[in-house]
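Entry 12.
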Amino acid sequence: MNSNDNSDPGERMLPSSREIEMVVLGAMLLEPQTIGSLVMARLTDKHFDYAVHQILFCEMTAFFREHSCLDLITLTQRLKDRELLEPIGGPAYLSDLISFVPMNRDIEKYVDNIADRHRL
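Predicted 3D structure (tokens):
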């Protein structure tokens, strides 16, 4: 065990994965009605280990709940209006999220991975 590790030795955490979080957020953008609803039912912002992803999840879910639609353009504008676009990495980072989504879109396993890290 690392001497800087203050966690309980009996507590097991799966390693965090920036890429897994990106897949889930990107899938929410691509299919907000189906995947967005699934993700919002299973995860909260606290499940995301990266602050940028916590911000994105909060903004995405809030927009979805207010307008029941979400896409790259509307999210970009919302983040810009709230002066959050550049702090999260700009439009390029949002595009990167979409590029991380696998072709088969078996997103549930990625959602499970994120949820499981906080259950162990």
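Annotation: Helices lie at 18-30, 32-42, 51-67, 72-81, 90-99, 108-117. DSSP finds six helices and no strands in the chain.
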